[in-house]
Amino acid sequence: MAPSLKEVAPEGFITAQLAIGRAALVPEIRLYLASALTPLWQATEAFLAEQNIAPPYWAFAWPGSEALALYIMQHPELVRGKRVLDFAAGSGLAGIAAALAGAQSVEAAEIDPMAQAAITLNAALNGVEISLSPGNVVGQAGDWDVIIAGDICYESAMAATIMPWLRGLAKCKIVLLADPGRRYRPADPGEILARFEVPTSLELEDSTTRQVCLYAISSGLD
After folding, report:
1. Can you tell me the distance from the alpha carbon of 131 to that of 99, in angstroms, rounded to the nearest whole number?
2. pTM, to two decimals
3. Using CB atoms within 10 A of its CB, is residue 67 exposed (0-12), middle (13-18) or buried (19+)?
4. In whole angstroms, what is the distance from residue 123 CA to residue 126 CA?
């Protein structure tokens, strides 16, 4: 008899439902990724019914995280020897890139337990360690040197809460935002460091590519 979903640990669910793949812009990084959106979403909905789990945003390499990962791999001096926070980390892709680029430590901020499990599994796939931050870090000062965030402006309430916090951190830390034109991105988030054309899936986006802008967030006091 097959085990009940209640008996399946998050790690077991991820390894059963996802396949190991590679991020398009940073193929040197391996991740547990969904090969098709609908079957995974349906499976997760069943899991959700029994364990109250959010939709599987952690199962995809989103455009913002791909752009962040590529930029970090191209500019390892940005994170080398520094303490990095990967905020709303999803699969952990950007944080893994920071660890591979020589960060002193990488902390992933994710409140979804499935995402936390995915981050741990993905970090192990790439031979790096990423710690998981306990609880919600929004509003905290933290001891990070660099904060990286991708695709966080897709909901009004989320952007309205998070962006002021990130601007406050930018007074004394490096804060990077990668955004593929989400609706609630601030009009002037900061200096554009780079632009990337990121391949996407029509299952997730409305086009086969998205242009992602990478910003160094300004504190508003510059």
Report:
1. 11
2. 0.88
3. buried
4. 5
